[in-house]
Amino acid sequence: xxxxxxxxxxxxxxxxxxxxxxxxxxxxxxxxxxxxxxxxxxxxxxxxxxxxxxxxxxxxxxxxxxxxxxxxxxxxxxxxxxxxx
Length: 85
Prior knowledge:
This protein is mainly alpha-helical. It folds into 2 domains: 54 residues, no CATH class; 30 residues. It has 4 helices and 2 strands, in the order ααββαα. A hairpin with a 5-residue loop joins strand 1 and strand 2. Helix 2 packs across helix 3.
């Protein structure tokens, strides 16, 4: 968990500051104007998003949110962490 948090901290890009298309270079890595190489993220999900998605529309965000919630509930259920009511 600590490793993942350190990765997140390293690529902490505020959503309101950039469009997704601008963030892609930070996720994949780039060379700046001073010829300094900036490494991309080591978080596979962000790398995959950067390689496959150009931009997010509201419907994309809603679908992604639903997928995350559904996956979390499935994980909790499969590990018997949910109480049936």
